[in-house]
Amino acid sequence: MRVLVSADIHLGSPIRSAAMRNPDLGDHLKQASRDTFTRIVDLAISENVDALVLAGDIFDNDQPDLKTRAFLISQLTRAADAGIPTVLVRGNHDALLDHRAHGDLGPNIHLLNKDTPSVEIASVWFHGLSFDKTHVSKSFLPDYPAPVPGRKNVGLMHTSLDGSPGHDPYAPCSEQDLVSYGYDLWCLGHIHAPFERSSGPVLAVMPGIPQPRHFGERTGGTVAIVELGNGTPKFERHQVGHLRFVACPLDLTDCTDVPDILRILRSELEGVRDPERHTAVRLLVTTGHHTADMLVALADEVLDTIDRLFIDKIKVTAPKQLVDAKTDDLVRLMQQELTEPGFQVASKEILEELRNALPREITDELAEEAMDDLLQEAIGEVTLSLHAGAAK
User: Fold this and answer.
1) pTM of structure
2) Domain locations in the chain?
3) Which residues pair with 315 in a beta bridge?
C-alpha cells in the first residue's frame, strides 16, 4: 500500500503579519494554501496512491468559514471519485471539522475520533484520535486502539511529541513510546518542520507544513508518500508548496551609488527566483549608509520588472566597524544595557503585552526566544540613524 501523508494545511489562515508588510504578498499567501492543497490532491491522483492521510490542522481557526470547508470537501471528493479514500484527524485548529456541528464530510472520507477511532482500507488498519478542544496537555497514546494482529497498522496523531522550539506542548508523547506501540507507520502533524524517525520496522513521519506562511516556516513545502511493504516503510518527499521563503544576504558596506545598488539588487533577486514557484525574499543587508525604508523603495522598483517575486522583509545590520567615536560609544552603552537584568525583565514584560494585544499570526514573530534578535535589529537601526546624521 502507498499513502500520501500531509498535515498542517491551515486553510483560511489570515496571514496578517506578511500582509501588514506587503499586501501583495499577503494576498498571494492566502491563495497559496488553497493552490497547494489542490496540488496535494493532484499528486495523490497522479501517483495513484491507495489513501490520502491528513494528520490534523487542515483549517487554521474556528471561524465559521463554510466556503473554505466547501473547498476542502470538493477537493476530497475529487480524490474519492478517483478511487482514493481520505483518512484524517482533527488538530487543535480544526473546529470546522466538527461533524456534529457541520455534518459529515462525504463518502470515502474518514474522520477518526474517539467514537470511530479505526477504519480498514485494503486490509490496512488506520487508527487516530481527534482534538475536541484547542489544547490537550496529556498524551493521546494510551487511548489509541491496540494494533490489529496480522495486519499493517497506521496511526494518525497531532502532537508536539517531546517538544519543539516555537511550539507549545500539545498532546505530548515521547518518540520511544510512539515507535514501540506496535504500529508500522505513524503519520504525524503539528510541528511544521518535516522530519522522520525509524526504529526497526517502524517509521514515524512528520510531513511538515506544505505551504509555509512566513519566513520561520521556510523548511516546509513538502508532503511524503510512504510505501508499506516488507520491513521498514519506505518514503519519499515531494515538493508541493506554491510559494517559498528564502534568505538573501547582501553586503552594501562599500556601495553608496544608487545605480550600483539597483544593479546589485537586480542581480541578487534574479538569482533567487524560481521559475516553478513564487518566492518571498528576506533581504539581510549589511550597510552603514542605507535605511530599510530606502532599500524597500529601491527593491520595489527592481521588482516591477521581475515576476513571481516578493519582498518579505528587509533587515539591515550595520557593519561591525563604523567610524565616529561618539556615536560608537553610544552604541556600546546600549549594548551593555541589553545585558542588565532589569532591562531584560522590562523587555520581556513589554514583549508579553504586545503578544497579548496583537493577532496570533503576528505574535509568532514575537516569541521570547526572538527578543535578542529584535533588540539587535533596533540597535542596528539606531546605529544607522546616528551615522547618517554624523555624515551630514
Assistant:
1) 0.81
2) 2-239, 244-391
3) 284
Give the distance from CA 287 to its chain's centroid: 30
Over residues 146-190, the pLDDT tens digits come to 999 999 999 999 998 876 555 567 788 889 999 999 999 999 999
pLDDT digits (tens, 9 = 90+) for 104-148: 888 999 999 999 999 999 999 999 998 876 677 788 899 999 999
- Count of CB atoms situated within 10 Å of the CB of 141: 17
Instruction: Please name the residues in contact with 6: beta carbons below 8 A apart, sequence gap of 6 or more.
Output: 40, 52, 53, 54, 55, 207, 210, 223, 224
Please name the residues in contact with 32: beta carbons below 8 A apart, sequence gap of 6 or more: 211, 241, 242, 243, 278
Those residues with Cβ within 8 angstroms of residue 247's Cβ, 6 or more apart along the chain or in another chain: 215, 218, 281, 282, 284
CATH fit for domain 2-239, picks 3.40.50.720, 3.40.50.2300, 3.60.21.10, 3.40.50.620:
3.60.21.10
